[in-house]
Amino acid sequence: MSGNWHYPALAATVSIVAVFVEQFSIIVVWFISLMFLFYRRRIAALPLMLSLLSTIFFYFYIPQLDVMLNPVNQPLNERRILSGQIISPINQTSEMISFTFQEKASPFSIAITYFHSGQDELKPLVELQFGAECTIDTLIELPNTATNPGQFDYAKFLKTKGIAYEATLSNLDDVNCRKTDGILHYIFQFRMQLLSYIDHHISEDAAVWVRALVLGDDSGIDDTTIDLFQRWGLSHLLAISGLHVGLVISMLYFIFIKMNVTTKETAHWIMMLGLPVYAILAGGEPSVWRACLMTLLVIVIMKLKWRINTTDVISMIFLLLILVNNTIIYHVGFQFSFSVTFGLLLSRRVIARDESRIRQLLWISFVAQMTILPLQFYYFYTFQPLSLLLNVIIVPYFTLFVIPTMFILLITSPISLLQSFFDHSFVTIHSIFINFLEIIDHYFNYPFVIGPLSVLAILMYYLTFIRFMQFIERKKQATAFYYGFLLVVILVSDASRPYFSPWGSVTMLDVGQGDAFVIEMPYRKGVIMIDAGATFSFNDQKATNSVFKQVIKPFLHAKGISSIDTIFISHEDTDHMGSIPFILHDFTVKSIIISDFYDQGNLPVSNSKINLYRVKRGDTIKMKNLVFHVLSPTNDKSSPNENSLVLYTELGGKKWLFTGDISKDEEAEIIHTYPNLTVDVLKIAHHGSQTSSDKQMLDQLKPDIGLISVGKNNTYGHPAREVIQLLESHDMSILRTDRHGAVQYHFKANKGTFFQVLP
């Protein structure tokens, strides 16, 4: 099997893809391909048999996220006493503690959280530790699932960790634990002590980086920096990876062997015993385990004098990790780590033959970025083309300066004079680096936004990229160029799908207690938004960016949208326009339309490049194949709600009326002014408040569908029971974001269908 372990690993990958896309036909094609290779004597009998067994085994071994851990017969939303064991380290911050709890005789785990008031409160809780047997009196709930397309799905994320429920403790007296001894407990306890030691002996500005890059705890790095690194494809530098482990191994090798502290044999045993411990201390991420296990396996192979190449080693580790944890394949870090590793292994000859260190770094950056590009688009929908060059600069900076300095700061911390010198030097240099990155971000932030690639495009991309690198290795530059061009064609073709699609959509996003509608025209002839609400901070009453970051931006990026033709703002309340400034900062917006009576002091537009139009009743806005008629307001009512824009349009074979937050008086004016007006889809005004939705208006309009954008369990009592009863008495189908999540109408020509995110 020497030199052939990549076949079983590839077989496992094929099975994973087949499970992921629910297409057994992929397995059939793979079997035919294997038999063809065997027929052509490109694969021997033993690798063939192992590959077939690997395919069948992993196809049934890998769970589907949508059906795995489907909770049944578990009482929810009522207090009960849980009996079981803590199966994770205790994560503790300045605001909360959290851990994972495994109930006895249950296949499901529970994520437990407690928000504390200070460290003094936690001092008596010494028995709360990994492995402790506990009883917990609490209320268990299902985790929040994504209610919008493109939104981060917390429930799905927990499922990848085998967690089906969550619970928030109200009091520490509800927890009773019995301490247990075990090596993992002592390792996790040492980790917590080490984190506390770092906080007390290293400056705050440096400590957050030491915690992140030595122990895998990035909770101290501010969100702005994390977002900055993520935008530029540098997030891998904030997580402990094979790079960090490689540096640790190099330092240990230098200390033990080069400085003649121990023999090579003893050094090998120290690394074999120490690396698994460090993997746990560093947070146990897949990339850390991959690097540590690879090193351990290489040492074992050397001792046993086996002849196994590096590709075999990484293939074995790949299979081992999946066997130990069958949900690890859904971990993004696992996918990125192994993709880059395999990519660099396949390109090692191309990289090694170049004598220039700079060009080698360019090759490494290029191969790494090109390998993860489909995954980057699939999970994050965007890609920074300049990140290829930026990685060439920043990866060496982290490799040669930042990561070694982190370990130096930790080692020299008992010697105050040395530690102070290194601490001050790091903070000074690193602040210059962060400023440099912010300047780059300010002037060169032009990402490609194309949305997730299709599975077919991803498959074609990787097959083409492998051929591209093969011809580069053979120095057939002309043929390699054609395959490189084909890579571009694959990406551009997949990204262009919306521009060739006859389908359009209207989406009512679930933004909580607020409004946000997105209209996508067929063939991407226009993208229009009607309102973009936000929540506000209770401290200063200003709009926060949480709705934009968690809902609106991910949705638009998932659709491959980076430019918006027009935004209608119904009125100036935060729940209708609070996210507009954030949209203007991150997206190209061509025009904004407001009413004649919109408060001048609340205008979100400061960019002269954006066209601002004011409209009133009787105005018509034409946008290619779409026409909006303004039905209100006609005069200033001295109230933002009553001055709301009311828009009528015909789209996808239906007549739509968007009503903002108008009251019954404005509704009466509209039906009086337009006595023949009827609609199919009515946006229920003011989130279903009693002040709106008059019976006479419903009698005239005769709508079939009522859309209510409203926050779950909101304090306003929206929608009012009387309004719901009135809508039901008019035989209307009611779709509301608090129960159905985002609601979408997909249409082609004059026919369409409504869909909801939540069942």
UniProtKB/TrEMBL annotation:
Location in or out of the cell: Cell membrane
InterPro entries: ComA-like_MBL, ComEC_N, Competence_ComEC/Rec2, Competence_DNA_uptake, DUF4131, Metallo-B-lactamas, RibonucZ/Hydroxyglut_hydro
Lineage of the organism: Bacteria, Bacillati, Bacillota, Bacilli, Bacillales
Organism: Virgibacillus massiliensis
Protein name as catalogued: ComEC family competence protein
One GO location term (cellular component): plasma membrane
PANTHER family: DNA INTERNALIZATION/COMPETENCE PROTEIN COMEC/REC2, RECOMBINATION PROTEIN 2
Domain Metallo-beta-lactamase, residue spans: 513-712
Membrane-crossing residue ranges in chain numbering: 6-31, 43-62, 234-254, 266-282, 288-306, 313-330, 361-381, 387-409, 446-468, 480-500
Source organism superkingdom: Bacteria
Record Pfam families: Competence, DUF4131, Lactamase_B
